[in-house]
């Protein structure tokens, strides 16, 4: 197996709580995912000036923002201007806020619904990453948990990263955001006991992503079949693999 250099997975970008490099994971054909290919992150609108400089210094060439127009209005992306700091930017709202959302009892059900209802947006996001300029790509939403977590899992699945590794990567979000749960509980609306229950129910544990990947297998024939059916071309899938994998 080709072994790449070891790097810190979590990136210290001041103002981001959940910025992580997806490099160094075992993948298809005994290869590994490339460090510096894909960074998953939370809201870049929280970056300080120092945090923005850290992002630029990471050789980021393309930012894919998965948030809704309302989220963009409330939390503007500092890189949304054309080629701001030499970084290309695109917004693909991964969900449609105009479409009523059913009531869900589990986080896995939220993700399954997103996969079923928003296939066009999924394909658009995956294609944008495949066709991004050479260099590091950052994908992010608000917390870097749900939309970013789902796209990250699809990307890792396309290059053959084992399911348990994908689930473990997803679980890192819980570790990074756990220190901030008490703040959310304290400032949220409703009774405290209800807020605590919601936090527990929608915490990104590894078994949640394992359940979602099994759902893709059972209902679509796997990650590869899902993205092809959604409209991602074979050429773009190959581009993604070239981008993500160490030669």
Task: Record keyword descriptors for this entry.
alpha/beta, Protein-Tyrosine Phosphatase, Chain A, 11 helices, globular
Major sheet size, sense and barrel closure: 5 strands, mixed
- Strand-residue proportion: 5-15%
Distance from first to last alpha carbon: 11 Å
The SS-based structural class is alpha/beta
Q: What's the level 1 CATH class?
A: Alpha Beta
Q: How many structural domains are formed by the residues? A: 1
Binned, the helix content reads: 40-55%
CATH homologous superfamily annotation: Protein tyrosine phosphatase superfamily
Query: What is the element string, with H for helices and E for strands?
Result: EEHEHEHHEHHHHHHH
Kindly report the spatial arrangement of strands forming the biggest sheet.
1-2-5-3-4
**CATH topology type:** Protein-Tyrosine Phosphatase, Chain A
Instruction: Give the C-alpha Rg.
Output: 17 Å
The CATH architecture would be Alpha-Beta Complex
Annotation, overall tally of beta strands: 5
What can you see in these coordinates?
This protein is an alpha/beta fold. The protein has a single domain, classed as Alpha-Beta Complex (Protein-Tyrosine Phosphatase, Chain A). Helices cover 47% and strands 9% of the residues. The protein has a 5-stranded mixed sheet with strand order 1-2-5-3-4, with helices on both faces. β3, α2 and β4 form a beta-alpha-beta unit. α3 packs parallel to α9, α4 packs across α11 and α6 packs antiparallel against α9. It is globular. The N and C termini lie close together (11 Å).
